[in-house]
């Protein structure tokens, strides 16, 4: 069976990171956590046994691509630190190489009983399972997209996004301000975040 690396990038994600890692750990051969050097909380410690690499932030695609460079398995599963995975990705690894897009739900609570306001956009398809290949790279500085080979969709896996219960309003405002700064310097022209 092909090998699989879990790759997560994180900035101040000590609360959610253990949940993200635990959701995928049964299926992966290695775990790489790329920690933004600006992190001020216990994210590095929350990574546990994962290989932690410190990364400099330029934009979100660059962070993901830099973290991918540390993965060694044949396939990559990319999660956000405030997401969990439902389902076993390994059967898809036997299929021809593709960027597998997974549906993502947004939640206000961990019990998954209260959809977030942006849940109306479900399914929010995210390319998160793909072969480790130099052609496969993330693009766009914010709300990044992985590109490079053909894309396919599967409902056999689901992402659950918990940004609302995991991040305080202050942290969400900090993130929105960061998006706006990227727009202001021309790295993310055309995006709106509020």
Overview of this structure, please?
With 194 residues, the protein is of the alpha/beta class. The chain has a single domain (4-167), classed as Spore Coat Polysaccharide Biosynthesis Protein SpsA, Chain A (Alpha-Beta Complex). 21% of the residues lie in helices and 30% in strands. It is built from 5 helices and 11 strands. The strands form 2 sheets. Strands 1, 2, 3, 4, 5, 6, 7, 10 and 11 form a 9-stranded mixed β-sheet that branches. A two-stranded antiparallel sheet has the order 8-9. The termini are far apart. Mean pLDDT is 87; it is low at 190-194.
Mean pLDDT: 87
Oligomer designation? single chain
Mind telling me the CATH superfamily name?
Spore Coat Polysaccharide Biosynthesis Protein SpsA, Chain A
CATH architecture: Alpha-Beta Complex
Feature tags:
globular; nine-stranded mixed sheet; 194 residues; Spore Coat Polysaccharide Biosynthesis Protein SpsA, Chain A; alpha/beta; two-stranded antiparallel ribbon
Give the structure's gist in a few sentences.
The protein is an alpha/beta fold. The chain has helices at residues 17-24, 43-46, 60-68, 163-166, 169-184, and strands at residues 4-10, 30-36, 51-55, 75-80, 83-86, 99-106, 124-131, 137-139, 145-147, 151-153, 158-161.
Secondary structure layout:
Elements: E1 4-10, H1 17-24, E2 30-36, H2 43-46, E3 51-55, H3 60-68, E4 75-80, E5 83-86, E6 99-106, E7 124-131, E8 137-139, E9 145-147, E10 151-153, E11 158-161, H4 163-166, H5 169-184
């Amino acid at each position: 069976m092909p090998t699989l690396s879990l790759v997560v990038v994180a900035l101040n994600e000590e609360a959610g990171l253990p949940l993200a890692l635990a959701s995928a750990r049964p299926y992966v051969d290695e775990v790489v956590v790329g920690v933004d050097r600006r992190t001020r909380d216990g994210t590095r410690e929350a990574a546990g046994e994962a290989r932690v690499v410190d990364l400099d932030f330029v934009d979100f695609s660059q962070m993901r691509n830099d973290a991918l460079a540390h993965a060694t398995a044949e396939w990559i599963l990319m999660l956000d630190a405030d997401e969990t995975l439902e389902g076993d990705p390994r059967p898809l690894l036997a299929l021809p190489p593709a960027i597998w897009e997974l549906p993502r739900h947004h939640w206000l609570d961990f019990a998954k009983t209260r959809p977030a306001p942006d849940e109306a956009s479900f399914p929010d398809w995210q390319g998160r399972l793909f072969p480790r290949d130099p052609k496969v790279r993330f693009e766009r500085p914010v709300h990044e997209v992985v590109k490079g080979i053909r894309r396919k969709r599967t409902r056999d896996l689901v992402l659950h996004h918990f940004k609302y219960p995991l991040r305080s309003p202050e942290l969400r405002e900090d993130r929105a301000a960061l998006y706006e700064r990227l727009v202001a310097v021309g790295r993310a022209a055309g995006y709106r975040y509020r």
